């Protein structure tokens, strides 16, 4: 486990502490090794210990969660010099989120991609949303291209298919995780506890939609661009060596707001809402449009639909 | 009178077809072609960045409204208006009016003083900066006064002659675009702003479509993902035209006649996906 600060001039004793903690962590098992000195930078000794013994999110008591939150905010302050607010807003009753995208409307602008990057404090070399340029009359994903870089879009003879985490109802990524660091919340959002994830990347292999992204290094995150309204299971700054993915902007949607991608879409191709509300727009789309989902034959039951105008 | 207009419209379209093709870049011609004040039609780039959630959350620096053509800037602070019932039993929602609604219409700068010439014709000075590219409108079937009042400040009117506020432009659009209007009313077209919860607030048609040239323009996409080592286009990736015929699943293939299999009775198609599933044995097992 590399620490980015290690090369800097550290006062004597600091490296000894690091070595000590490293030994301790290795002895204690890989389970939370990264937490003690992940890429947070400048953890104090007590924070490092507390991080090391931090429980799984679902097993923490309220007091433990609020301590963990305080630590997260303190670490962000130390690392980025920014005051973030990390909350743990729970799922609303009677809400299961779903998403529908009108592929006739999507024009491949990638506005959603960058709204997501800004909203969710993504490392600036990571993008949760991939807009795939597809040949008209074909649904063959093998020939889709998400690196397209034209002067003008949309191109004739192409259509654009945005992909992100589908929040599967039967998620293979959750089944693959050996430490249960990823699970489905009551509102249908598949989340990751970044402090519990060991970075084994099994889930990335299990996901048929390439929706998960691994932080190979510390996220490259300009401090002045940090979104300070964060959620524990959502967009709080992540350490290096963990897996992350789209979480339907849990920090927004649980407070009744739209996800950042929906808000940024200039064509109105994105429709987000509560699947349990029979009057919601998404239910109208599901009932009245010719809808399809990607790789349906795998039985992952994505809560993410696509439709066309005609 | 109506007959006369229709006849003249036909002449105008014939004349237009013979003339040089109309300029396609609306804004630039508009900006340079005359000394008119077109600020009311400016794009949205200089629109103030505000939070659209209506819940006081932090703005993420997103543009306040879509950056497409000369669309109207939605006014989120405007008082709520009563929404016209376009369909029986439709859900209730608010339509966000646009900022330039009251008295900012550039035509009325002159035409509140100068009488309009109601005859459909090819527009000349000082109207040559104005482009009407609205489907059939551009072909001379429609005319300014299909949608605008002849008198007063050039407000909107329905085909039946009822007056409309600019904020209710969706009523005008829905007279012809019924399918889109239905989708818009029920939420499958258009854009919902504010949250997914609480009272639904949607943008007016003119927030995304510039009413005189409603087709969306092309534009440069934002940058794509960084190509990670070894994760570029796969080696087998070939341009569509150079691909072998068998690799293309086309609509034509889906439309081929279904043939029932002699043994199993399953319907198979000579080409297309159904066939490959059967070959893989997926269907036979179940
Ligand atoms: S799309 Fe991938 S990451 Fe998202 S829930 Fe499904 S399997 Fe998991
Ligand atoms: S990388 Fe994925 S599978 Fe491995 S611990 Fe993290 S969430 Fe679980």
Q: Could you explain the architecture of this structure?
A:
With 310 residues, chain A is an alpha+beta fold. In chain A, 26% of the residues lie in helices and 15% in strands. Chain A has helices at residues 14-27, 33-37, 45-52, 62-80, 111-119, 172-176, 202-206, 250-253, 260-264, 281-288, and strands spanning 85-87, 97-102, 130-135, 158-163, 182-184, 190-192, 213-214, 229-231, 243-244, 270-274, 291-292, 304-307. In chain A, strand 5 (182-184) and strand 6 form a beta hairpin. With 286 residues, chain B is mainly alpha-helical. Among the domains of chain B are: 40-48 and 67-122 and 132-218, no CATH class; 235-280, no CATH class. Chain B contains 9 helices and 7 strands; from the N terminus they run H-H-E-H-H-E-E-H-H-E-E-H-E-E-H-H. In chain B, the strands form 3 sheets. In chain B, strands 1-5-4 form a 3-stranded mixed sheet, with no helix packed on it. Chain B has a two-stranded antiparallel ribbon with strand order 2-3. A two-stranded antiparallel sheet of chain B has the order 6-7. The chains are: A alpha+beta (310), B mainly alpha (286). The interface between A and B is large, with 65 and 54 residues. Bound molecules: iron/sulfur cluster (2 copies). The site of one iron/sulfur cluster has 14 residues of chain A, from helix 7.
Roughly what fraction of the amino acids of chain A lie in strands? 5-15%
Helix content of chain A: 25-40%
Biggest interface, CB < 8 A: A-B, 65 and 54 residues
User: What average pLDDT do the residues of chain A reach?
Assistant: 86
Q: What ligands can be seen in this structure? A: iron/sulfur cluster
For this entry, what is the oligomeric state of its chains? heterodimer
Q: How is the biggest beta sheet of chain B arranged?
A: 3 strands, mixed
Distance between the termini of chain B: 70 Å
Radius of gyration of chain B: 26 Å
Number of helices of chain B: 9
The end-to-end span of chain A amounts to 53 Å
Low-pLDDT residue spans of chain A: 1-42
